[in-house]
Amino acid sequence: MIPTISDVRAARERLAGGPHRTPLLRSRLLGEHAGGAAFLKPENLQRAGAFKFRGALHAIRTLADDERRRGVVTYSSGNHGQALALAAREEGVRAVVFMPEDAPAAKVAAARSYGADVRFAGTTSPERKAAAEALVDREGVVVVPPFDDPRIVAGQGTVGLELVEDLPDVDVVLVPVGGGGLAAGVTLALKASRPDVEIVAVEPTTADGLGRALAAGAPVEIPAPTTIADGLKPLQVGEIPFAILSEHRARAVTVTDEEILDAMRFLALRARLVVEPSGAAGVAALRAGKVPLEGRTAAVVLSGGNVDPALLARALGSEGFDG
């Protein structure tokens, strides 16, 4: 099932009283640097520290009574696991989260603090997915995927509804992309009222799954990426997100780890926002000149703020930062 704008609007109703409505903040310095006007949508201020709470809570609230009794399981590099853990706790549902063996300690601790049963399985999405599916076979729990699911995409789309309400004349929207659930949901929300808006999906140079998929005309598996942006490392963009993003002619650009570190430092020192590497990808693209604005108005989704303290310290000490 490919979700529609109607599903996104229904998700907002279903999510009433759950996620924060995050603000839209203008960044004069970023806009001047990129040659236009730039605004930030700080989902790092969202509950559980990332946009993922929207989709996770939406999925939980769509469960039937017998599914709620059985509990849920997911496979996540961190933010979706944390989000599902918090959503499940609030809805009184058991949650099991399979994380990679190299998951950031802060994300593991957060998921556990929300009451999830955290388990580890390999270092790639397929390994975690296989472990989750084995648990389904053994115990009958319900899988809540991190991105390739219509409930998840619709929930994440509420970011876009808020964005276009707060900035109706937006011309360009930059969204970090891993599996594509956020970018797909935001695209549905924006294109319904701003059909000419440009959607720019931002990926690490070593994790360009969407860019390769758009070139090939279908999702393709990429080699296991090495990047500090741990939330943007799926080996393949989701089928549902790809269908939406390709239909609406989203384009993909890539950024290096060094450009991401620069963006993290800019956000911390200039915007007073603590943003994780994945969440800083859009700002990295603007600061690195990958998306010249040329007088246009851009909005950048800062997807999360669950950063390892050591990595944040590395970003703050990065050389070559010019403000």
Short description:
By secondary structure, the chain is an alpha/beta fold. The chain is built from 15 helices and 10 strands.
Which structural class should the secondary elements be placed in?
alpha/beta
Total DSSP helices: 15
Q: Any idea what the CATH architecture of the largest domain is?
A: 3-Layer(aba) Sandwich
Largest sheet: 6 strands, mixed
Termini Cα gap: 45 Å
Provide mean pLDDT, rounded: 95
Structural overview:
The structure is a single chain. It is built from 15 helices and 10 strands. The chain has 323 residues and is an alpha/beta fold. A 6-stranded mixed beta sheet has the order 1-2-10-7-8-9, with helices on both faces. The chain has a 4-stranded parallel beta sheet with strand order 5-4-3-6, with helices on both faces. The protein is globular. The chain starts with a helix and ends in a 7-residue tail after the last helix. The model has no long low-confidence stretch (mean pLDDT 95).
Structure keywords:
single chain; 323 residues; alpha/beta; Rossmann fold; 2 domains; 6-stranded mixed sheet; 15 helices; 14% strand
